[in-house]
Amino acid sequence: MTYIFRFIIVLFAMFFLKPNFSPAAQEIPKLSKLPIGERWFSISKNKEQTGYNRLDVRENGAGYEITVESGAKFSVLGFSREAVSWEKYQVNRDLSLKGFEVDEVINGKPMTLKGEVCLDGFRVSITSNGGTKEKILKAKGPVYPPPVINIYPLMNGGEAGKSFRVKMLDIEKVKIIGVKISVIGIDISPGGFQTVHMQNDLYTFVDNDIWVDLNGSTVKEAVSRANIITLAEDGNSVKKLLTTHPWLKRH
């Protein structure tokens, strides 16, 4: 998933306590590759759909090409937030990042990023406010893009009670951050199938809960105390939002 909505999540989370969860003991199968194809997600706040996310994963021989499109509009504690983004990531078979391109518009302000791996980390070109500058995002070891964070534990021997710490590219802050992912265990979805329940610490003050099916596809993400839910949907139902909110589409 994309993380351009972190500002909104933090504003909500400051006013709530963290929920408690009990780990399950079932065995979690290890995956060897990403699930291929297109998936759509709705983003809602207080049960009202206010955004969408489209994820498309393709094999490219040496690894994967991952494309993410998303848009959302929120009003939180008097702050209005409109965000649209298009992201493309080139990753290795182990999900580590090789290069990326990002176009995003947040509250009417556009920014374009282009980056590629280099000896010290990533060389990034940033275009905004009519100008372009370059910077090096320093990092030792592999760095991962946001769309693979949910599946990383399933490809690296995830089991209930186990935690992983990874370095992730934060496209909004244009920096590399540390993320902790904790495997809670196996849950049964409302549809009756098994999902792997995880949490990460992307959002200050509150955990982000994630449910991924045993094939590695995200089913749901929830910052429950903020009433913000990302839910896997049929593509046609999500596309209806784009007809009534045309600003959500990338132009």
Write the layout of secondary structure elements.
Blueprint: H1 6-13, E1 37-45, E2 48-59, E3 63-76, E4 79-92, E5 97-106, E6 109-118, E7 121-128, E8 131-138, E9 163-170, E10 175-188, E11 194-200, E12 208-213, E13 218-223, E14 228-233, H2 235-244
Antiparallel strand pairs: 1-2, 1-14, 2-3, 3-4, 4-5, 5-6, 6-7, 7-8, 9-10, 10-11, 11-12, 12-13, 13-14
Q: How would you summarize what this structure contains?
A:
Helix content is 7%, strand content 53%. By secondary structure, it is mainly beta.
Describe the model.
This protein has two helices and 14 strands; from the N terminus they run αββββββββββββββα. By secondary structure, the chain is mainly beta. It has one domain (6-248). It has a 14-stranded antiparallel β-sheet.
Task: List the domain count as a whole number.
Answer: 1
Question: Strand content of the residues, in percent?
Answer: over 45%
The largest sheet is: 14 strands, antiparallel
Spatial separation of the terminal alpha carbons: 21 Å
> Segments where pLDDT lies below 50 for 5+ residues?
3-25
**Helical region count?**
2
Instruction: Compute the average pLDDT.
Output: 85
Shape: globular
Strand-pairing-aware structural class: mainly beta
Proportion of residues in helical segments = under 10%
